[in-house]
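Sequence in, structure out. Go.
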Amino acid sequence: TLNRRYNDGYTFFSVRANHGVKPKNQDYAYAILPGANASQTSEYASAPSVEVLANNNSLHAVKDNETGIIGANVFKACELEGIKFLVPCAILYTYNRGVYDINISDPTLTQSELSLEFPTNVSVSGEYAAAHENVVTVDVSSLKGKTYQLTVTEI
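Output:
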């Protein structure tokens, strides 16, 4: 069901899918294509550039295969493409030739630090970040949900 609402010249919408009565272990994925018409939407649907990497109780993650950007919402400790997420977080990152460019936050505003474990030892650049062997810790105690950018390099 698609609902539109107009407010001061802006269009807002909400989408609702009927999941049935007490669904269990059901999932779905969708892409939002702002400004796309029916033809453009159909064209994208036939060859989407975004791939769903995970859609489970621990992690929702996608990868844009055109840019290499991976985006994830981590709900509990888990692993994705060699990185272990030790605590919940929201993250966008790319990986290229041993270098991870990372944007990370604590949208729950409940944690003082976020920790990631990499497959090899790493160094890190960033004011609030520290690396010890293969674990990177980001101090988010003063960031209040703000996204923090850091670079992690394999050594």
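Check: The mean pLDDT is 90. The longest strand covers residues 89-96.
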